[in-house]
Write a structure and sequence with these properties.
Protein name: catalase
Shape: elongated
InterPro entries: Catalase (IPR018028), Catalase_AS (IPR024708), Catalase_clade2 (IPR024712), Catalase_clade2_helical (IPR043156), Catalase_core (IPR011614), Catalase_immune_responsive (IPR010582), Catalase_large_C (IPR041399), Catalase_sf (IPR020835)
CATH topology of the largest domain: Catalase HpII,  Chain A, domain 1
Number of strands: 18
Bound molecules: CIS-heme D hydroxychlorin gamma-spirolactone 17R, 18S
EC number: 1.11.1.6
Number of helices: 21
Helix content: 25-40%
GO molecular function: catalase activity
Structural class: alpha/beta
CATH superfamily of the largest domain: Catalase core domain
CATH architecture of the largest domain: Beta Barrel
Distance between the termini: 64 Å
Organism: Roseateles violae
């Protein structure tokens, strides 16, 4: 779909025009300025809010869930059911998306990813243009750096020089660990006849159908700058840009491989590559480590025959065969599959060099194959191959004397002849070697509906390796957005972010299932052309078939949620209801709030009611369950699930206790409490209005100030609540807040010096609502001049330490809080 390049000067596309008509009062601004105040701002937001509510309400529960369990749904995945928003602002990132500028363009085109448009979107031509920096600033002088005087040092300020040099410094990327040296070209694959009996793969859908391809040939061992005519296997990698996504057939010019299992690939490559101590020899297998390894790996014998044959010194890329090597599967629309081997046969025939030639060419023209490919295409002699398939079934495969999962074996053409199905033509050289040939990322995991894997253990390892290697080579998980790697099929998913992300996704939703984006992008299901793996059986494990699905009993979603709820103590239940209430009060779309409560109604009616009540609506009907009748847990409740079931060893080690003090406080009782806490293993600290010495006693000091150490950082508080301290402390709002928060958070409080003072200043209730004593509140009797022993009130301090060990005293908790 063409995109409007400049919304101010170019004509809108029809889609954009429809959108503009529907869009809420489009605000024209040439500079991206927001609309003036009073320009219907409130209306836009209100309208968006209502549209979101409407969209969310259209999906009161996940209607696909019940159909996710068991074998049949696993083989026939359902399609999602997208809901179209009544107003497009419902799925917008911002109601300001109607603001346009030369930079912003207009809005996203509905359901469209321009990243999948042709390479024209990134092709650059600089004819008639002045030189600029990467920021588009014209460069006046491209010959000289900025200096302090003609003969002076270059200035750090020279951003033009620095940008140019910095970019240059980072021009190289890691070369491919194997197949580093390669050449590529664009072209097409043309299908002879529809193959729908065999496969639904898009390139084989119709006679004469052309699928664009990018093909890269390579040597394996040599580095990026090595010579072309080394004795080596040649890579033959084809990227089909199909209507259903990219299919990469990453093959070689030899139909077998050295090893049978991916586990041995790093060993093979380490043995083959230049030896690690002196980095020799370049692009050659003629050295000790390679032959040491292969001579201990008898399964490489077959491949060695091919590699020592003239196949390993081809005359031209245009004159060599290509092979998929592994046995693959073709799958038709009915889900029936056949085993398949892929063969590319060159129109120009298979021709090779002789060794002496290969050696001399490597000196005379190290780019021999690269040049040959380039020049043939430039001259209009387009290289061409015919694709032939060997098709066979499991029964035939069983009767071969070799295993078709063994990549060191061919299926002789005499046993299964080639079925010619189409031709590959390379008719255009890349515009830029780096952007295309170097950055192309082939990957055996890139298959499309109609193609599937077999259990060939070499293939299985490759499925992982090729994506993985691009993370380092191309610098992150977004290499699929590099233009040469982008499919022509539209890409829509919820993957986001990562280095060098190009796509700017519209809206707030990047997950599925969702209702806030109308359920989009939705799962395609089988009927919608989604990829479904062939359910090949795993007889050896007795686990059944390879499929994406869930066992039936996974459909019970609620029995243990209910068990958990029932096993909680009263305060824990209160906290759960409070947590739901808080979270949902932050949710802006009422339909989402109600949907959550309808989910909770399946867990516990009381919980649902408590949450709904706090949010101001009636409990909705419970959501339909995926499994009826509801499963009852084996237990009514499991006490082990309550946090209270594990009170710990009863100690107070490391608990932080604030001793709230002020100058003039009764230091003797404070010191006694401090000593007792320390001895019990707690961490007492003096907290007061300001840091510094406490009275005349130099051994005691305020260690932390109110502003530095508020209540929430402490597990408990000891108050200097004697007559001398309580009054001045009550003058500090922070001290009052401190006491209130300790109380409200149900932490133990010890008041030294009596119940009045600070406790009275915050109206702290000494009793629980029902009239019992507060088990977390400890008050020492007022100090008595006549009986100094009373000062420490050792029993109360001991009781406080026991209270500290209990951590919280939820008996005190009320809704609303009393303080
Ligand atoms: Fe590759 N191979 N390979 N390979 N291979 C790579 O992918 C790997 C194997 C082949 O032009 C790497 O992007 C493992 C067989 C070609 O860009 C890497 C195993 C066959 C190309 C990788 C194999 C191939 C590669 C290096 C054993 C023939 C070049 C950089 C389990 C059927 C593609 C990259 C291009 C490239 C891994 C075996 C062909 C590291 C782990 C067998 C044509 O991912």
């Amino acid at each position: 779909m063409p995109r409007s390049k400049n919304p101010e000067t170019s004509k809108s596309t029809s889609t954009a025009a429809t959108k503009a008509a529907k869009a809420p009062k489009a605000t024209k601004a040439t500079n991206g300025a927001p609309p003036a105040k009073g320009d219907g701002d409130g209306d836009l937001l209100q309208r968006q809010h209502e549209a979101m509510q409407q969209l969310a309400a259209a999906r009161p529960f996940n209607e696909l869930k019940a159909g996710e369990h068991g074998r049949d749904p696993a083989l026939q995945p359902q399609a999602g059911t997208p809901v179209e928003p009544a107003d497009e602002s419902a799925t917008a990132s911002s109601v300001r998306e109607t603001v346009v500028s030369i930079k912003l363009g207009s809005q996203a085109q509905p359901g469209h990813n321009p990243g999948n448009e042709s390479l024209d979107r990134v092709r650059v031509d600089s004819g008639g243009q002045a030189l600029t920096t990467n920021q588009g600033v014209r460069v006046a002088d491209n010959q000289n750096s900025l200096k302090a005087g003609l003969r002076g040092p270059t200035l750090l300020e020279d951003f033009i020089l620095r940008e140019k040099i910095t970019h240059f410094d980072h021009e190289r990327i890691p070369e491919r660990v194997v197949h580093a040296r390669g050449s590529a070209a664009h072209g097409y694959f043309e299908c002879y006849d529809p193959l729908d009996q065999l496969t639904m793969a898009a390139p084989f859908a119709a006679a004469g159908k052309r699928t664009p391809v990018f093909v890269r040939f390579s040597t394996v061992a040599g580095e990026r700058g090595s010579f072309d005519t080394a004795r080596d296997v040649r890579g033959f990698a084809v990227k089909f840009y199909t209507d259903d996504g990219n299919w990469d057939l990453v093959g070689n010019n030899i139909p077998v491989f050295f090893i049978q299992d991916a586990m041995k690939f790093p060993d093979l490559v380490h043995a083959l590559k230049p030896e690690p101590h002196h980095a020799m020899p370049q692009a050659a297998s003629a050295h000790d480590t390679f032959w040491d390894f292969v001579s201990l790996m008898p399964e490489s014998a077959h491949m060695l025959m091919w590699v020592m044959s003239d196949r390993a010194i081809p005359r031209s890329y245009r004159m060599m065969q290509g092979f998929g090597v592994h046995t693959f599967r073709l799958v038709n629309a009915a889900g029936e599959s056949k085993l398949c081997k892929f063969h590319w046969s060159p129109r120009a025939g298979t021709h090779s060099l002789v060794w002496d030639e290969a050696v001399k060419i490597s000196g005379a023209d190290p780019d021999f194959h690269r040049r040959d490919l380039w020049e043939a295409i430039e001259a209009g002699s387009f290289p061409e191959w015919e694709l032939g398939l060997q098709i066979f079934d499991e029964e035939q495969a069983e009767n071969f004397r070799f295993d078709v999962l063994d990549p060191t074996k061919i299926v002789p053409e005499e046993l299964v002849p080639l079925l010619p199905v189409g031709r590959l033509v390379l008719n255009r050289n890349p515009d830029n070697f780096f952007a295309e040939t170097e950055q192309v990322a082939f990957c055996t995991a890139h298959i499309v509906p109609g193609i599937d894997f077999t259990n060939d253990p070499l293939l299985q390892g490759r499925i992982h390796s090729y994506v993985d290697t691009q993370l380092t080579r191309l610098g992150g998980p977004n290499f699929h957005e590099i233009p040469i790697n982008a499919s022509i099929a539209q890409v829509h998913n919820n993957q986001r972010d990562g280095l060098h992300r190009q796509a700017i996704h519209r809206g707030s939703v990047s997950y599925e299932p969702n209702s806030l984006a109308g359920g989009c992008p939705f799962q395609a299901g089988r009927a919608g052309g989604g990829f479904v793996s062939i359910p090949t059986p795993f007889p050896a494990t007795g686990e059944g078939d390879k499929l994406r699905g869930k066992p039936e009993r996974f459909a019970d979603h609620f029995s243990q949620a209910t068990l958990f709820w029932r096993s909680q103590s009263e305060p824990e239940q209160r906290h759960i209801a409070g947590a739901f209430r808080f979270e949902l009060s932050k949710v802006q779309v009422p339909a989402v709030r109600e949907r959550v409560v309808s989910l909770l109604a399946n867990v516990d009616a009381g919980l649902a009611a408590a949450v709904a009540e706090g949010l101001g609506f009636a409990v909705p009907a419970p959501q339909p369950r995926a499994l009826e009748p509801a499963v009852e847990s084996e237990l009514d409740s499991s006490p082990a699930l309550s946090l209270l079931a594990r009170p710990g060893d009863g100690g107070v080690q490391t608990r932080r206790v604030a001793l709230l003090v002020v100058d003039g406080a009764d230091l003797a009782s404070l010191r006694a409490a401090q000593t007792a806490l320390r001895e019990a293993g707690a961490t007492p600290r003096f907290v007061g209005p300001r840091i510094g010495p406490l009275g005349a006693d130099e051994s005691m000091a305020i260690e932390m100030s109110f502003e530095q150490a508020p209540s929430v950082l402490w597990d408990a508080v000891v108050l200097a609540n004697d007559a001398a301290a309580a009054r001045p402390l009550s003058m500090y709002g922070q001290a009052l807040d401190f006491v209130k928060d300790q109380y409200r958070h149900c932490k133990p409080i010890l008041a030294l010096g009596g119940p009045g003072g600070l406790l009275a200043a915050v109206n702290l209730p000494l009793m629980l609502p029902e009239g019992e004593a507060d088990p977390g509140l400890f008050v020492c009797a007022p100090p008595s001049e006549t009986d100094p022993a009373l000062r420490t009130d050792a029993d109360t301090v001991t009781a406080f330490i026991a209270g500290l060990a209990r951590h919280r005293h939820f008996e005190r908790e009320t809704d609303p809080p009393r303080v």
